[in-house]
Write a structure and sequence with these properties.
alpha+beta, four-stranded mixed β-sheet, about 150 residues, three-stranded antiparallel β-sheet
């Protein structure tokens, strides 16, 4: 059975939905109902119970305590189209504190022209927020929040 729980962090409540040790959805919210729709229908659990998050919870606490590499090895299970899944995987390789421009991110993702379409993958309803990016404008830097 899949579990979920909310961890109090300096940035506010952070909730994760975990199945067999892999994050299905997470984000800075205390509302489970905000995260469940982000889980791809083929991965969405029939039942969720509130419980311990195990290694995922420990990584969340360590990350918010300053160990930005604590989440690097946390497994994430998410589904979308092939390119978007690839772009999410690429985003997870961006080291914390090493900004990328949209152009660099698009090229690193294998589609340099994707920058013209607003480089959507970091902000496109990614089910996992710990390793997502903060983007403010197409000319801004893409900064991994990891």
């Amino acid at each position: 059975m899949s579990t979920w729980n909310t961890v109090d962090t300096p940035m506010g409540p952070f909730t994760a939905v975990v199945d067999d040790g892999a994050v299905l959805a997470s984000g800075w919210t205390a509302e489970l109902d905000e995260l469940v729709p982000l889980i791809h229908p083929t991965l969405r659990p029939a039942e969720l119970r509130r419980g311990e998050l195990g290694a995922v919870g420990a990584a969340v606490v360590a990350y918010h305590g300053g160990d930005l590499s604590a989440i690097d090895d946390v497994p994430v299970r998410q589904r979308s189209g092939a390119f978007l899944e690839h772009a999410w995987d690429v985003l997870r390789t961006v080291p914390a504190g090493a900004p990328l421009t949209y152009t660099e991110y698009a090229a690193k993702s294998g589609r340099p022209a994707a920058v013209t379409s607003r480089a959507p993958s970091p902000n496109r309803r990614s089910p996992t927020r710990l390793a997502s990016a903060n983007v403010t404008a197409s000319t801004s830097l893409l900064r991994s929040s990891r």
